[in-house]
Amino acid sequence: MTDIITEIPNKYVVFDLETTGFSPAYAEIIEIGAVTVENGIIVSRFQTYVKPLNRIPYNITALTGITEEMVKNAPGIEDAIVKFLDYIGQNILVAHNSSFDMRFVCAVCAFLGLEIRNSVIDSVRLAKKYIKGAQNYKLETLKNYLGIKLDSHNASDDCTVTYNVVEHCRKLMKEMQ
């Protein structure tokens, strides 16, 4: 569930998924990344590739750089999602366009009989509220707007970019008070 946020918590977990498509009805998670943030600083990281049941489409490999070779010895989704849930605990989650990522996480959890009840903040909503002057609110655009030099479409770097977006919003929020 996505909450409307009036302040950014001191502790949260940013997460991002790479998938083989746009819907959990036919696509699979192939990478999970997360960073835990405390008092504005990344204090730990989580990353795992996930071995899909089906082949990774060529266009997804072209976009994400994730190859069959990279996932061949990765855990299956059952193991990967349990490790992810252990990592996030009950912390507040943050994701860029959170409804996309949460649809996949919730679908996997429902299929496996697991529960996820974490509150979720969508960094797109934060950016729209606080970052004025960006051409749009896609993560790639915000990355360039903030001058962040990282790759795109891999879960670990996208988590770091999202973290920077959130902390930039925190700074702007404080300036407005």
Structure description:
A hairpin with a 2-residue loop joins strand 2 and strand 3. With 177 residues, the chain is an alpha/beta fold. It is built from seven helices and five strands; from the N terminus they run βββαααβαβααα. The chain has a five-stranded mixed sheet, with helices on both faces. The chain is 42% helix and 19% strand. The radius of gyration is 16 Å and the shape is globular. It has helices at residues 58-64, 68-71, 77-88, 98-112, 123-130, 139-145, 155-176, and strands at residues 11-19, 29-38, 41-49, 93-95, 120-122.
Brief rundown of the structure:
By secondary structure, the protein is α/β, with parallel strands linked by helices. It is built from 7 helices and 5 strands; from the N terminus they run E-E-E-H-H-H-E-H-E-H-H-H.
